[in-house]
Amino acid sequence: MSPNENSEPTSNDSKQRVTTRTLQRMRRDGKAISMLTAYDYPTAEALDEAGVDILLVGDSLAMVVQGHETTLPVTMDQMLYHAEMVGRATRRALVVVDLPFPEGQLEITRSVEASARVLKETRCHAVKLEGGAEQANRIKAIVTAGVPVMAHVGLRPQSVHVEGGYRIQRKEDQLIADALAAEKAGAFAVLIECVPSNIGKAINDAVSVPTIGIGAGPDVTGQVLVTHDMIGFNSGYTPKFVRQFSDVRGAIKTAATNYCESIRNGKFPDNKESFE
Ligand code: KIV
Q: Quick one: pLDDT at residue 47?
């Protein structure tokens, strides 16, 4: 099949695959990009059907699925296991996979190999890498190998121990330099985490690729949240930038309580739920 310029999807086209070019066009046309995390088949399928533009198999799975305190413990093999399910479940969204610690910190060839595994072993389309200016050579090498890269600037959860915690990032000049260096190295988009709104806007104005904010205010090209936070399926601390659109943890607890009670009262199963 020959490439067809006119076959690219628009933001609301529910049939065609979102690509890096679609996202670039959305930025140019002033259309907001939606992004959420996904780690398993049924959730990815539901989010994709809902029209989310980008799904991220985030290393946040270490925290929200595996129950760790940081993103550091999740391994590359575990990321690939989850990415394969998400890639297979998704028809429309562009699927990005995080390079987990330390795949994006060791030798550049290791990052290129890990990124190539994402395209080879899952049906996902791109990787995300924490860092800006100091990661420029690595971003360039991965893109040169044929793997699209989303850069991640601002708060970098994989550096939590260097930073001594999760803090709002306020060094505007450095943050802009990071985003510009990532763009110059070939990143197709820049994720910006936990910066004041005016810095989110300044970064967005400085680069020409799409910017995706999480705690970066409204003046960026798109927004991302961790799905478990967004649907109320988390335990413990909820950051200020999260809006909870549902109470899935509450719904699960209510359903499980009613199930247990029905068994104890002898009301489950009834005749309709039993074989003759
Ligand atoms: O792993 C993750 O969920 C992230 C968030 C910033 C979206 O990188």
A: 98
C-alpha span between 71 and 81 (Å, rounded):
16
- The pLDDT of residue 179 is above 70: yes
Give the integer Cα–Cα distance in Å for 115 and 200: 28
Catalytic residue among 45, 134, 193, 261: 193
Predicted local distance difference test score (pLDDT) of residue 14: 55
273 noted as active-site residue = no
Ligand 1 centroid to residue 70 C-alpha, Å: 12
Query: Does residue 37 have its Cβ closer than 6 Å to ligand 1?
Result: yes
Mean pLDDT, the chain, rounded, equals 95
Q: Is 214 in the pocket of ligand 1 (CB under 6 A)?
A: yes
Class of residue 194 by CB neighbours under 10 A (exposed 0-12, middle 13-18, buried 19+)? buried
Q: Is 98 in the pocket of ligand 1 (CB under 6 A)?
A: yes
Q: Which pLDDT does position 15 carry in this prediction?
A: 72
pTM of the model: 0.95
Q: Rounded to whole angstroms, how far apart are CA atoms 103 and 94?
A: 22
Model confidence band, residue 236 (pLDDT cutoffs 50, 70, 90): confident
Query: What domains appear along the chain, each with residue ranges and CATH number?
Result: 20-245 (3.20.20.60), 247-276 (no CATH)
The preferred substitution site among 98, 129, 212 for testing ligand 1, maximizing ligand atoms within 8 Å of CB, is 98
Q: Give the DSSP H or E segment for 173.
A: helix 172-185
Length of the chain: 276
